[in-house]
Amino acid sequence: AMRLQAPQFQALFTPGLRSVAELFEQKNHELRIAGGAVRDLLSGVTPQDIDFATTATPAEMKEMFTAAGVRLINNKGEKHGTITARLQEQNFEITTLRIDVVTDGRHAEVEFTTDWHKDAERRDLTVNSMFLGLDGTLYDFFNGYEDLKSKRVRFVGKASERIQEDYLRILRYFRFYGRITEKPGDHEPTTLQAIQENAKGLAGISGERIWVELKKILLGNHVNHLVQLMYELDIAQYIGLPLDGNLEEFARVTKNIQKLSPKPMTVLTSLFRGKDDVTNLDLRLKISKEEKNLGLFLLKQRQELTKGVGPEPLRPYQDFLMDSREANTNSKIFELLKYQGEEQLLKEMQEWTVPTFPVSGHDLRKMGITSGKEIGAALQQLRDEWKKSGYHMDKEELLSCLKKV
């Protein structure tokens, strides 16, 4: 058996984890690291969060932790077998091994087991089905490590069975494909067939769950390939994407945008042809108001607001920002520049500080203009002069314009 000794693995052994490990050992319960954290450790990545699996039942864990005076937090996961203990400023999420008794494509009823192989069998992908003992021993029942090394994404056992247990796994397959594999187009035909045959099942999955996965796909690798595939395999219509998505525009935009760390909505908007596409996406996925507004902004401005001809290519964007009365317009303009693939202009725009208009109503009163209406008109006129000067004129220069008038 392989034993992992990587520094990322050694670094996990905080005082908290050592205490947890001791408790389990005293009671002869097995405790291992599970799922995604194992995949990360084997790839030489420090895992963001770590899930543990154990042969102990939730009742046994509660009893053990309570006896040791350990604090337990939120018991929401308990009916699925998850206990969260807090030790030394750290949370430990520990789940009893389980088998699915009934699944309806959305959630499963589970019963507990002490069989590690059976628990691995109900996980989605081989690369996510491994366990790691705290001594570094790898427990890998489905060749997940081989698949990880050869950068392959495969379902555990039969793809159609895994998908029917939870249809969201279709999107998880795409997400991990974009994360692990080297090149697009390297799928097992039987997997694609299983996805196509079960695509309709996604109609029953909540929009919120779909949007979480879809956003990760949009920011991963091979996104153009994966979204084209969603159309070919008849998935798009069930997850809120437009029936006649603009795949040419999508291919064009995704080519340059990945390196510019766009927001998911910026990538997705390139599929859209009009406002209805944003509305339908929102109806299906319940996107945030900010995401919706960004989509509508990009649709409206992607052709309208483009770089200036001549020595000041940034001017149109700067003018738009200066004229805007809305909050966070600058972040929308950054996303527009990413969408347009204007890497250099994006850098310049991010470094540009919005200048403050130097004249106030107070200055005009001092000059003897008293009526509010005249002050308003004069300020507007000076703003226009200031804009024409590229926001360079100072207070003196601006006020001298007024004197001429």
Automatic annotation (TrEMBL):
<keyword id="KW-0547">Nucleotide-binding</keyword>
<feature type="domain" description="tRNA nucleotidyltransferase/poly(A) polymerase RNA and SrmB- binding">
    <location>
        <begin position="188"/>
        <end position="239"/>
    </location>
</feature>
<dbReference type="GO" id="GO:0000049">
    <property type="term" value="F:tRNA binding"/>
</dbReference>
<dbReference type="GO" id="GO:0005739">
    <property type="term" value="C:mitochondrion"/>
</dbReference>
<dbReference type="Pfam" id="PF12627">
    <property type="entry name" value="PolyA_pol_RNAbd"/>
</dbReference>
<keyword id="KW-0548">Nucleotidyltransferase</keyword>
<comment type="similarity">
    <text>Belongs to the tRNA nucleotidyltransferase/poly(A) polymerase family.</text>
</comment>
<dbReference type="InterPro" id="IPR043519">
    <property type="entry name" value="NT_sf"/>
</dbReference>
<keyword id="KW-0460">Magnesium</keyword>
<protein>
    <submittedName>
        <fullName>TRNT1 nucleotidyltransferase</fullName>
    </submittedName>
</protein>
<keyword id="KW-0819">tRNA processing</keyword>
<keyword id="KW-0808">Transferase</keyword>
<keyword id="KW-0694">RNA-binding</keyword>
<dbReference type="GO" id="GO:0000166">
    <property type="term" value="F:nucleotide binding"/>
</dbReference>
<dbReference type="Pfam" id="PF01743">
    <property type="entry name" value="PolyA_pol"/>
</dbReference>
<dbReference type="GO" id="GO:0016779">
    <property type="term" value="F:nucleotidyltransferase activity"/>
</dbReference>
<dbReference type="InterPro" id="IPR032828">
    <property type="entry name" value="PolyA_RNA-bd"/>
</dbReference>
<dbReference type="GO" id="GO:1990180">
    <property type="term" value="P:mitochondrial tRNA 3'-end processing"/>
</dbReference>
<dbReference type="InterPro" id="IPR050264">
    <property type="entry name" value="Bact_CCA-adding_enz_type3_sf"/>
</dbReference>
<dbReference type="GO" id="GO:0046872">
    <property type="term" value="F:metal ion binding"/>
</dbReference>
<dbReference type="InterPro" id="IPR002646">
    <property type="entry name" value="PolA_pol_head_dom"/>
</dbReference>
<keyword id="KW-0479">Metal-binding</keyword>
<feature type="domain" description="Poly A polymerase head">
    <location>
        <begin position="31"/>
        <end position="154"/>
    </location>
</feature>
<dbReference type="GO" id="GO:0001680">
    <property type="term" value="P:tRNA 3'-terminal CCA addition"/>
</dbReference>
